[in-house]
Amino acid sequence: MPDARLWHRHSSRERLARFALSLAVLAAVMVSIRSVEVIPEFLLDAPEQVQDLLVRMWPINFGFYPDGVHDALVDTLHIATLGTLIAIALALPVGVLSARTLVRSRLINLAARLILVATRSVNSLIWALLFVAIFGPGALAGTLAIACRSIGFVGKLIGEALEEAEPGPIEALRAAGAPWLSVLLHGYWPQLAPTFWSVLLLRWDINIRESSVLGLVGAGGIGMALDTALNLFQWTRVSLILLSIFVIVIAAEIIVTQIRKRVL
């Protein structure tokens, strides 16, 4: 009677590779734990500290909102909105230059992609520190930080959308002798418009979140009020500020979702 053949989902080589990968991940986790110097005593004490902090943050000091939170929250919205608009204005031409289907120069494509990568790879807090050092503390530094951080994100998605556009209408316009700008407006833009508005709304939603913490490094907005309350150990004000940030983030999410349903 012939030997029964056993079916295995993975070959011996694949099982060995999976085991080696799991071992490497485990080793990386162990090295990371040792390098960050996790203190077991602090971990065991964490629940008690969290409970003590929550007790200090209650009750929430709602009376502080008109004088200490409202204006800072409005500044946060202004920073996110203006930063997003500046980013869109700067990212559109860079995204067009990065699209190989529109601009045939490899050197220009590489230069545009370098700008997109450079702006996207630097965290918004680092941009904020840089602009605070140049312009001083305030909303201007936060606005420019949000704008620079967003250029790479917006420009990359726009460039990719342009490269993935259907060539049929574009070739028809070119065959009819349409100038470059007409090809861009009537051939590319109708296909790009859904992506453009989606990216605009998504980036504004993200920037609301990011602008909430820029004040921790002096770049304006609600983060400056939070930093002041933390430094003065005013925990009931801290809870109010955190609640305000949570509410504005949820509100921005709802607004973006509703706009997408009705416009896109």
Summary of the model, kept short:
The chain is an all-alpha fold and 264 residues long. Helix content is 79%, strand content 0%. Helix 3 packs antiparallel against helix 4 (106-121) and helix 8 runs antiparallel to helix 10 (235-263).
- Radius of gyration computed on alpha carbons: 25 Å
Distance between the termini: 66 Å
Beta-strand portion reads under 5%
Q: Please, how many domains?
A: 2
* CATH architecture title of the largest domain: Orthogonal Bundle
Q: Write down the CATH topology of the largest domain.
A: MetI-like fold
**What are the secondary-structure elements, in order, as H or E?**
HHHHHHHHHH
Mean pLDDT: 82
As residue ranges, the low-confidence spans are: none
Structural class, by secondary structure, is mainly alpha
User: Helicity range of the residues?
Assistant: over 70%
What is the number of helices? Answer: 10
What shape does the CA trace take?
globular
Mind telling me the CATH superfamily name of the largest domain? MetI-like
